[in-house]
Design a protein that fits this description.
Structural class: mainly alpha
Order of helices and strands: HHHHHHHHHHH
Radius of gyration: 24 Å
Number of strands: 0
Shape: flat
Length: 305
């Protein structure tokens, strides 16, 4: 058995002693995390490591239970699971669907909190996330419609471009509130740790989106390219949000730094709008060319009959 297969076998069905160790550590760390809150130490900076460890081992404990009853091993042989791990396109659209669900939950939760707290800042963030849902949802909706697959892919690409242009406009109120210094945050931990965590997440998102753009560059599936362009646009907005947050949290005496927000914000909005406009124009041109090709194919079929 190859080393890779041995590792996979271990992950799908780890020995019982490994599961027991995970359960013991998970119980101890979870108990410790809860105890810290009861004694008034739960919000201390050093307690963060206990909370994170408890969360990690809680997830591992749940997975260990699933391996004992054999669910991961049975799932491995499922047709849909095999298709997910065997096809990059399938994985890309599953991740996109997950992003739609996540952003929808954020919007619902954000609307409630924004109304309760009367927070204009959270309100504009909710509005931006609504327009972040639209491009991905547009691709899914058009791809599921009946008709020629190539035509639907081009149509999804074009209308996703239009949705990206709307997203660029939706980002403007966010930029405006940052310039007015109305972007307020509440932190569970210190600002430095918060910025570090968000920075790691943001640059990971940007790196993944750039990698995916390179990977789909030679792909013929325009709907897949559209999905990856949306992810790239999302990463660009995250870069702006990170910079705005850093300039607000971290102390700075330089007045020149205050000019970074309008510059980067404007570039991000223009960049997203340009990507959307390119997709819309290119898609419309391809749609105009497709009917002529379809007619030629139809004539060839008629001649063959």
């Amino acid at each position: 058995m190859k080393k890779r297969d041995k590792i996979l076998e271990f992950l799908l069905k780890p020995p019982m002693w490994v599961c027991i160790v995970v359960w013991v550590i998970g119980t101890l760390t979870l108990g410790g995390s809860i105890t810290l809150y009861f004694v008034g130490l739960g919000l201390k900076l050093w307690a963060l490591s206990v909370h994170l460890t408890a969360l990690v081992f809680l997830i591992l404990s749940v997975y260990a239970v699933l391996t004992v009853i054999g669910i991961p091993k049975r799932a491995k042989n499922n047709v849909h699971v095999q298709k997910f791990f065997g096809s990059y396109n399938v994985r890309a659209f599953v991740y996109a669907a997950g992003s739609i669900i996540f952003n929808t939950c954020y919007v619902v939760f954000g609307i409630i909190i924004a109304n309760v707290g009367q927070s204009a800042w959270l309100g504009v963030l909710v509005g931006y996330h609504i327009f972040l849902i639209v491009p991905r949802a547009t691709v899914f909706f058009i791809k599921r419609r009946d008709g020629d697959k190539d035509v639907q892919n081009v149509r999804a690409y074009a209308y996703c471009g239009l949705a990206l242009m709307l997203l660029a406009l939706a980002v403007i109120p966010v930029i405006r509130m940052v310039l007015d210094d109305r972007n307020t945050y509440n932190y569970f931990v210190s600002g430095i740790i918060y910025v570090t965590a968000i920075s790691t997440y943001t640059f990971a998102k940007l790196g993944i989106s750039l990698y995916n753009l390179k990977k789909v560059r030679k792909s013929d599936d325009l709907s897949l390219k559209a999905i990856k362009n949306v992810s790239f646009a999302d990463a660009l907005i995250s870069i702006f949000a990170l910079q705005a947050m850093m300039l607000k949290i971290l102390p700075s005496d330089s007045g020149a730094l205050s000019k970074l927000n309008p510059v980067l914000g404007g570039l991000v909005a223009l960049g997203i709008f340009a990507i959307g406009l390119y997709m819309l124009v290119r898609g419309k041109k391809m749609l105009k060319a497709l009917p002529a090709e379809s007619d030629e194919q139809g004539e060839k079929v008629s001649e063959g009959e």
